[in-house]
């Protein structure tokens, strides 16, 4: 499973990239707005840090404008994947952009029916939102399982990207459910390292080593 960071913050991306485990980045208009730079400028800077798929989202809501904006975003860098919302206009734009050879990440997916439409429109990635479904009392991970089953049944090549992941448990469950990609905030990626037995074991190893090989007193 690929690991993406869901952030537009350059410091977080540099830290994650330095670990050597980040395969790509997802952004959205909210994340871009937090950084205070124009979208194109921020996206270019992100592409300089992470060599992988970088999702950049359109802000238009009408098909013609989505297509125009998507083409502009795709010209920023070869790694750009254009994000379109899962609306009627968004699916039409996905069909048009994918027909032009532009890779599209269809976002804001909350049902298997929506995911089926995205795959039929030629989506490169589908982004089901796990955490937001959990927030309203649904089991978000069931959506990941349902979509992966449908795609396998019919041979769709659209990659399932588990989004809105809020804990290490979400990440592991996404991997178990067969998601091709998991995107997460930096803090969740950082939490994947943590286990008390790792800390305890390392502390014990170092204590034993220093006890056995401590310097002998110098003879007077």
Largest sheet: 8 strands, parallel, barrel
- Say which CATH homologous superfamily is assigned: Aldolase class I
Strand order of the largest sheet: 1-2-3-4-5-6-7-8
Assigned CATH architecture = Alpha-Beta Barrel
- Strand composition percent: 15-25%
Reading the helices and strands in chain order gives EHEHHEHEHEHEHHEHEHH
Descriptive overview:
The protein has about 220 residues and is of the alpha/beta class. The chain has one domain (about 1-195): Alpha-Beta Barrel (TIM Barrel), CATH 3.20.20.70. It has helices at about 10-20, 30-35, 40-50, 65-75, 90-100, 110-120, 130-135, 140-155, 170-175, 185-190, 195-210, and strands at about 1-5, 25, 55, 80-85, 105-110, 125-130, 160, 180-185. An 8-stranded parallel beta barrel has the order 1-2-3-4-5-6-7-8, surrounded by 6 helices.
Give me some keywords for this one.
220 residues, alpha/beta, TIM Barrel, 8-stranded parallel β-barrel, globular
Question: Layout of helices and strands, plus pairs?
Answer:
Elements: E1 2-6, H1 10-18, E2 24-26, H2 29-35, H3 39-49, E3 53-57, H4 63-74, E4 80-85, H5 88-99, E5 104-109, H6 112-120, E6 125-128, H7 130-135, H8 140-154, E7 159-162, H9 168-177, E8 181-184, H10 186-191, H11 196-212
Helix pairs in contact: 4-5, 6-8, 8-9
């Amino acid at each position: 499973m690929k690991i993406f960071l869901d952030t537009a913050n350059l410091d977080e991306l540099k830290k994650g990239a330095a670990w050597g485990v980040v395969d790509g980045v997802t952004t959205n208009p909210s994340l871009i707005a937090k950084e205070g730079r124009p979208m194109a400028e921020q996206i270019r800077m992100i592409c300089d840090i992470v060599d992988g798929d970088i999702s950049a989202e359109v802000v238009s809501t009408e098909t013609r404008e989505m297509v125009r904006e998507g083409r502009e975003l795709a010209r920023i860098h070869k790694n750009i994947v254009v994000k379109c919302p899962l609306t009627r206009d968004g699916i039409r734009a996905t069909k048009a952009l994918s027909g032009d050879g532009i890779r599209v990440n269809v976002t804001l997916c909350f049902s298997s029916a929506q995911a089926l439409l995205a795959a039929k429109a030629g989506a490169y990635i589908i982004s089901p939102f796990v955490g937001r479904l959990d927030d309203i009392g649904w089991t978000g991970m069931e959506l990941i399982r349902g979509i992966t089953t449908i795609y396998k049944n019919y041979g769709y090549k659209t990659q399932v990207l588990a989004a809105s992941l809020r804990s290490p448990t979400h990440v592991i469950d996404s991997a178990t459910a067969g998601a091709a990609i998991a995107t997460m905030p930096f803090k969740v990626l950082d939490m994947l390292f943590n286990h008390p037995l790792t800390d305890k074991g390392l502390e014990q190893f170092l204590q034993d080593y220093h006890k056995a090989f401590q310097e002998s007193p110098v003879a007077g």
